[in-house]
Amino acid sequence: MSASGPTVIAQPAALTAWSDTQRLAGKRVALVPTMGALHDGHLALITEARKHADVVIVSIFVNPLQFNRRDDFDAYPRPIDDDLATCQRREVDAVYAPVASAMYPDGFQTHIEPGPLADVLDGPARPGHFRGVTTVVAKLFGAARPHVAVFGQKDFQQLAIIRRMASDLDMGIEIVGLPTVREADGLALSSRNRRLTPEQRSAALCVPQALAAIADGFDSGERDGQRLQAIGRAIIDGQPLARFEQLEIVDPNTLRSIVTIDGSALAVAAVWFGEVRLIDNRLLG
User: Fold this and answer.
1) Same CATH topology for 7-178 and 191-284?
2) Architecture of the domain whose range is 191-284
3) CA distances to 85, 89, 229, 245, 263 from 81, in Å
4) Which of 77, 197, 206, 219 is the most buried (most CB within 10 A)?
5) 52 part of the active site
6) What digits encode the pLDDT tens for the residues 99-150?
7) pLDDT by residue (tens digit) across 200-245?
8) Is the pTM of this model over 0.90?
9) Which of 39, 42, 52, 147 is flagged as catalytic?
10) Domain 7-178, what fold?
């Protein structure tokens, strides 16, 4: 990184040229894909990326393809000046901040179609979401040409789908998943949290509390998926400001529901607070 801050790049060809220069100099390149509104969870990803590479690229792009609701896309926070200042403080080497027309120019028509991992959990609830995720991540990989890319495990399904894509398409990129970073009271860090009212922010604690109760049940010997699900559902249903969408106990490899747990499992939740949808998960075993 230069003394004036990270190199800010807006065009895919310019990012590729920058990355190629780093590679020719024998440097290992890491990419941290984000949609901006950077928080401590993103900073943890940047720190992790630095452990795996010599130079770090942070991409900041609110991807329209992965939003199935226009109002959600419009409301997504975009504090780009704050994000650039954060990247400078964290000594990020380059920030890729393209506009939509650079990512999806006139005539764009090719998409990456995810497989069965996208047919469960968030897939049915957010039509086209993971198709948008795989498409934008493939484009980011193509432009940045990283050796390694770092993602958070809060979006567990997204991470699983990206790992599958990178493997299936022989991308030659190491995919690193980092455990969820949480506030002191347990709420998973998310850019969407800033859209919560104080009352909704307090109510949102029912999500990590439900997952913790499920984990306690599992640790106490409960292996029936439906009974574990009921433990967590009771906590969410007890919060008046919470609007339940999803709570599943699934296989962490296939993301399919588990009736009787034999080994490890994943508890996955999606809950609405007003117009804000929060997701979280917890590994069991």
Assistant:
1) no
2) 2-Layer Sandwich (3.30)
3) 6, 13, 42, 34, 46
4) 206
5) no
6) 999 999 999 999 999 999 999 999 998 999 999 999 999 999 999 999 999 9
7) 999 999 999 999 999 999 999 999 999 999 999 999 999 999 999 9
8) yes
9) 42
10) Rossmann fold (3.40.50)
